[in-house]
Amino acid sequence: MGSKRAMLGNGLGDVLEDMVGRHRRFVDLFTGSASVAWHVAQRYPIATFAFDLQRYSAVLAAAVVQRNNPVNPVRLWNDWVRRATPKFEAFCAPDATVVNAAFVIKARKWACQFDQTSLVHAYAGHYYSPVQACWIQALRDTVPTKSPNREVCLAALVMAASKCAASPGHTAQPFQPTDTAIKYLEISWHRNFCADVQAALAQLAPIHARVSGKSDVGDANEIASQLQPGDLVFIDPPYSAVQYSRFYHVLEAIAVGATSPVFGVGRYPPLHERPSSKYSQKTTAKLAIQDLLVTLAAREVSAIITFPDHECSNGVDADMIKNYASEIFEARTQIVSSVFSTLGGPALSGQGPRLARLNADEMILCLEPR
Ligand SMILES: C[S@@+](CC[C@H](N)C(=O)[O-])C[C@H]1O[C@@H](n2cnc3c(N)ncnc32)[C@H](O)[C@@H]1O
């Protein structure tokens, strides 16, 4: 998570500083880790609205953009863990000081006794140790019911779950108990999940919006049709031909609180239940971004678009976006150097080995209505 965080200190922060003050609302249409929504909400006296196809992203954004006061992280944790502890204890999760293949097999068998929709059944013995998975389920079942405590706790749960997941970067596949990978699995399984939740609460508690906004699950192109003159829209669309839901399905299930029965080594829910983006399909991505630009121009809003400065695996490239946008907006471009994830796909169509992260230039395109 956090792909745009570095760029905020490398050009994007200055562009926002220049443009936000002239607008009435800030709208992040592809909020992801919510780093940009958090940045704007904390600094500027306008409401921030954040959307994403994935619920876990909306959860991360909501914890900050929907709240204009700090919360007390110690009181929040003490009340929450008091409610969760009996549920955690009822699971009687097996634990081990040494994680080896035999314990992994035992953990997986133990998890099968639970309902197929439970997070324990889906992930204990795979992405999480039994103890971690039971805390995840117990804490998820007992999140506060009232805002803003509910949003803060949900986001802290997602942040801790992302940190503890026994997988290389994204949650596409968990580490397996092989000779080479067991040490990584052990490191993740030995993380103290509750300590990670408390750390996330401490990080989130003091940060809040200056003006309360809203975050929700939504399709960027549909939300765009409801925008108004005076809105500044941030657009950081997918650039990979691999669906984001392939990499974040575990965080998504934790944000929701349950899952459909999972299958395969990756523990995925059925494909039709995973959010699917037109921006992550080569046949539809170009049209999706063009439609979005046309809608935004018709709504007379301003926009900032970031995109890797080369053709990406979804078939979209920065020049195409710039040329198309220049016909319907006043446009100016800035190029900054950046590091971004290939999300497991090749960086360029037809190009060689898969790289996890790539150094490349990134375009920042500023658009104002004509
Ligand atoms: C490049 S990432 C955004 C990263 C984000 N700016 C950050 O700092 O983490 C693209 C995001 O767009 C979301 N997405 C894909 N298609 C979408 C759509 N049609 N509407 C809204 N969000 C979408 C994905 O779930 C993903 O979180």
Unreliable sequence segments: 345-355
Strand % is 5-15%
Q: Major sheet, described briefly? A: 7 strands, mixed
Helicity, in percent? 40-55%
Name the ligand types.
S-adenosylmethionine
Name the CATH superfamily assignment of the largest domain: Vaccinia Virus protein VP39
In CATH terms, what is the architecture of the largest domain?
3-Layer(aba) Sandwich
Count of discrete structural domains:
2
Sheet with the most strands: spatial strand order = 3-2-1-4-5-7-6
CATH topology of the largest domain: Rossmann fold
Mean pLDDT: 92
Order of helices and strands: HEHEHHHHHHHHEHEHHEHEE
The shape is: globular
Structural class: alpha/beta
Could you describe the 3D structure shown?
The protein is α/β, with parallel strands linked by helices and 370 residues long. It folds into two domains: 5-69 and 209-241 and 281-369, Rossmann fold; 73-204, no CATH class. The protein contains 14 helices and seven strands. A seven-stranded mixed beta sheet has the order 3-2-1-4-5-7-6. The longest helix is centred in the N-terminal third of the chain and has 19 residues, at 73-91. The protein is globular, with a radius of gyration of 21 Å. The two termini are 35 Å apart. S-adenosylmethionine binds at residues 2-4, 29-30, 32-33, 35-36, 51-54, 57, 219-220, 236-238, 244, 277, 279.
